[in-house]
């Protein structure tokens, strides 16, 4: 029989939307959440919901109780947290310190590494609500994994135990990796929200019902076919339609003009590059975008 991996005591520093979810997933895999640090009332309630019975402690106490510590604080707070924990002697040799930031690799954990910790960067490529349903969403979720070479197997094993799929990301590529995800996910939310607002202004009672099938098909086509999935007036070179769009946006939603122009220009560039947008139509189209962006 194969020996089961060692079960670990798990601590969480930062009970935002991600940390308690990852700890709950590790609990399902047989590990033991033992301590969580939470500051706000919202984070305390989240910890109680996802990790019932797990005591709340100060960050240093969390490290004192746990073999594996999830450092799930905002990106900008992570370097200071790591430095502070290392300087106060809270980090123990052989302790696994895991952050879930997409921006950073393991270099941000260097102060803890010098104190003997084992650094891992495990970033789930998923949006989180902080609700229990997020644990199920980890099934099949890709994680951006960065770790020292000797810890790569351990890092990937933890991801698999949480139900995820490990994807190795080199340290130097972490910022680019994270920028790609932000463009794909964060900016999409903004664009969808803008589209819903405009549909409401146009009299559509349930914008989500109208957009759902359209956006689902567009996403599926884009993932399957890339630029070949481009459709619409920009890809076709319909300068008159684009000009009409911009006139309406300037009148009814001027705050959306800049994003429309920026995305239309990016779309035109890609459509030109793959031959979908004919050069003879591109000049008039780009002229309409130039006019729309400066009025």
UniProtKB/TrEMBL annotation:
Q: Superkingdom, according to UniProt?
A: Bacteria
Q: Where is the DUF2520 domain?
A: 141-267
Which species is this UniProt entry from?
Actinacidiphila yanglinensis
- All residue ranges annotated as the Putative oxidoreductase/dehydrogenase Rossmann-like domain in the record: 4-124
Under Gene3D superfamilies, the record lists:
NAD(P)-binding Rossmann-like Domain, ProC-like, C-terminal domain
Specify the protein name. Answer: Predicted oxidoreductase, contains short-chain dehydrogenase (SDR) and DUF2520 domains
